[in-house]
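Hypothesis: this fold can be encoded by more than one sequence.
Test: take the structure tokens below, design a sequence, compare later.
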């Protein structure tokens, strides 16, 4: 029986991966949990507890080998393989996602952009052609697609989700600002941009109250 790991731990793993990548860029080969805690503003105890969920990776008195830990966390996050993504909705947000070069460096490859708007069908974003949504079925049948990114209006998302399920795609990256009702075997990551702004607004208001 596999060990159950909390969502809080899983959500911290990309941060570890990002910071370790920055350490590698600076040529740092080894780091202790205390040193890493100062960089990340996470306690050393929390770091050790998080990593112990996956085997620990450190040696007492030595710390962590940055390259090794970076690679192991990459494997935990599934970044040792390429994930093919199609973006459904090629408006401003869809085009911004398609143009973000860091995705490919992490193993996420945008292989298709789709939209209903005939004015943008045929244009290209970083070498990826915007196709008509009518071509989606045949495209998915001819190409292996791991993830569908939803950047269309939310009133279109529910129907599109059913189409995606029927096409056999098992993961949805949902920017459509609505919760999708889907079978349990479909993996959905909801991204609510407005929620992040509201959290920022709360922290600004909290700071202002504390200054009074």
């Amino acid at each position: 029986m596999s060990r159950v790991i909390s969502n809080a731990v899983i959500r911290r793993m990309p941060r570890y991966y990002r910071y370790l990548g920055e350490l590698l860029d600076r040529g740092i080969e080894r780091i202790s949990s205390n040193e890493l805690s100062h960089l990340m503003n996470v306690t050393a105890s929390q770091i050790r507890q998080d990593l112990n969920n996956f085997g620990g990776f450190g040696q007492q008195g030595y710390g962590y080998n940055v390259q090794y830990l970076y690679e192991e966390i990459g494997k935990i996050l599934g970044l040792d393989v390429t994930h093919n993504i199609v973006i459904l909705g090629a408006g401003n947000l869809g085009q911004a996602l398609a143009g973000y070069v860091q995705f490919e460096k992490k193993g996420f490859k945008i292989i298709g952009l789709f939209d209903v708007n005939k004015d943008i069908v045929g244009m290209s974003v970083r070498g990826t052609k915007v196709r008509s949504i009518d071509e989606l079925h045949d495209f998915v049948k001819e190409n292996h697609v791991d993830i569908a990114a939803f950047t269309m209006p939310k009133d279109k998302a529910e129907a599109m989700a059913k189409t995606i399920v029927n096409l056999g795609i098992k993961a949805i990256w949902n920017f459509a600002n609505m919760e999708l009702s889907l079978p349990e075997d479909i993996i959905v990551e909801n991204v609510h941009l407005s929620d992040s702004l509201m959290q920022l607004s709360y922290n600004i208001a909290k700071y202002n109250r504390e200054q009074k």
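The mean pLDDT is 92. The longest strand covers residues 108-115.
Hypothesis status: open.
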